[in-house]
């Protein structure tokens, strides 16, 4: 058996930023347009008018200030309200592959590795741009990696579940090194026309290189332990899928073909699940909260993270102990905790311990306990 370690990470950040002010302006223009179009039905009481969104609400309810997206022209156009991406031929890399390559190159460079050292690519994300062939196999080909690749989807927990799968394969010796890559185009599944959630998501790609600890070229994080759990819930759901055209009204512009959530219930049910999961994981590894130097949490909501941090540490986290990036990136699904890890981990001292945790639809929760070696 080998000991797995994270030796490199990379973050691809799209060029386009949308501020809350821009987002709210576009949403309100759309709401006004719909209310004008439906004036008679609204006057007769048949439908409710759409209400305006507000910057104050968004910041207070979520902590989000900006989000990056692959396209902002469509999202901010009240006549469109979704991203507009150019058609690609089947002979060129897909958009997820393009984002993933940037993140993978950065992770490999940080680890001082090349594609020849890697045997496995896992593309772990909430959505995949096509049914098949797997995006991971395309990334593998573009990087020039021998071995194999596969896609997996555990929604917001995809990265930690992918890290567990990769770490287990490195541990057993079936692969020498693995890239777990999370290209998340959340702007594609977000319902930008729904004020309850239009502010939630952003786009990004992250990559994590996992290899045998004895092969590490530089500072790295030993993977001490991983743990994954799932519990079925309909409170975060998206009904889009390959049977869409087979179902009555399946091809209509239906609300349930984009991200839907019962935000309040998610809040109430996921918080105890995650706090207990982390507590149990630490206890079974003999790790006290006082041993934990850093918490890199899933980035969905600031209040949620403050609560989990307090529960896990038994006190309010000190500044920097539980870094948030959601104010800049919004919720980037599985990539959020890896962005936080990638940006706020290299100051840890030899032997210090931290925990990566992601959670979300499924419900799902995954945690990875790591130890720094300089
Ligand atoms: N602008 C202004 N007001 C808004 C609004 C907006 N964009 N969106 C909703 N509101 C209103 C609501 O209509 C509601 O009004 P009411 O009290 O008159 O009914 C009020 O603000 C409160 O809305 P609510 O949805 O209860 O807010 P919240 O405090 O629960 O915050 C979330 C909403 C989504 C930020 C929060 O529930 C959350 O983060 N949940 C967990 C999300 C999560 O982790 N999801 C995982 C996804 S992977």
Tell me the overall shape: globular
Number of helices: 10
Structure ligands: coenzyme A
Hey, roughly how much beta strand do the residues contain?
A: 15-25%
Write the element-wise H/E pattern from the N-terminal end onward: EEHHHEHEHEHEEEEEHEHHHEE
Major sheet size, sense and barrel closure: 9 strands, mixed
SS-based structural class? Answer: alpha+beta
**Mean pLDDT, nearest integer?**
97
Helical proportion, percent range: 25-40%
Low-confidence stretches: none
Radius of gyration: 21 Å
Total number of strands? 13
Q: Distance between the terminal alpha carbons, to the nearest Å? A: 23 Å
How do the strands of the widest beta sheet line up side by side?
5-4-6-7-1-8-13-12-11
Walk me through what this model shows.
The structure is a single chain. By secondary structure, the chain is of the alpha+beta class. The protein contains ten helices and 13 strands. It has a nine-stranded mixed beta sheet with strand order 5-4-6-7-1-8-13-12-11, sandwiched between helices. It has a two-stranded antiparallel ribbon with strand order 2-3. β4 (120-124), α5 (135-143) and β5 (148-152) form a beta-alpha-beta unit. Bound molecules: coenzyme A. Coenzyme A (COA) binds at residues 53-54, 57-58, 61-62, 156, 195-196, 236, 261, 263-264, 266-267, 300-301, 304, 331, 360-361. Coenzyme A (COA) is lined by residues 53-54, 57-58, 61-62, 156, 195-196, 236, 261, 263-264, 266-267, 300-301, 304, 331, 360-361.
């Amino acid at each position: 058996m080998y000991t797995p370690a994270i030796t490199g990470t990379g973050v691809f950040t799209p060029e386009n930023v949308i501020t809350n002010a821009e987002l709210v302006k576009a949403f309100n223009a759309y709401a006004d347009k719909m209310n004008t179009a439906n004036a008679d039905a609204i006057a007769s009481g048949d439908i409710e008018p759409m209400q305006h969104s507000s910057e104050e609400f968004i910041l207070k309810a979520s902590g989000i200030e900006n989000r990056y997206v692959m396209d902002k022209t469509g999202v901010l156009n009240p006549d469109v309200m979704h991203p507009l991406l150019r058609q690609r031929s089947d002979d060129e890399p897909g958009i997820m592959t393009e984002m993933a390559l940037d993140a993978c190159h950065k992770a490999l460079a940080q680890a001082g590795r090349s594609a020849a050292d890697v045997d496995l690519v896992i593309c772990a994300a909430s959505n995949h741009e096509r049914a098949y062939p797997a995006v991971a196999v395309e990334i593998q080909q573009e990087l020039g990696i021998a071995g194999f690749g596969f896609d997996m989807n555990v929604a917001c927990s995809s990265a930690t579940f992918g890290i567990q799968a990769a770490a287990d394969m490195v541990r057993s010796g079936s692969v020498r090194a693995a890239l777990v890559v999370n290209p998340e185009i959340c702007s594609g599944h977000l319902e930008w026309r729904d004020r309850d959630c239009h502010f939630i998501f952003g786009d990004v790609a992250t990559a994590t290189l996992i290899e045998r600890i004895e092969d590490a070229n530089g500072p790295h994080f030993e993977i001490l332990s991983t743990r994954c759990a799932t519990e079925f819930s309909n409170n975060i759901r998206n009904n889009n899928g390959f049977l869409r055209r087979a179902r009555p009204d399946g091809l209509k512009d239906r609300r349930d073909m984009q991200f839907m959530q019962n935000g309040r219930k998610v809040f109430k049910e996921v918080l105890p699940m995650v706090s207990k999961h982390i507590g149990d994981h630490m206890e079974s590894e003999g790790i006290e909260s006082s041993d934990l130097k850093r918490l890199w949490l899933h980035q969905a909501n600031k209040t949620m993270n403050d609560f989990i941090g307090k529960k896990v540490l038994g006190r309010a986290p000190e500044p920097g102990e539980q870094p948030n990036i959601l104010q800049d990136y919004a919720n980037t699904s599985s990539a959020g905790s890896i962005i936080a890890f990638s940006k706020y981990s290299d100051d840890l001292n030899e032997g210090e311990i931290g925990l990566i945790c992601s959670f979300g639809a499924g419900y799902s929760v995954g945690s990875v306990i790591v130890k720094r070696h300089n």
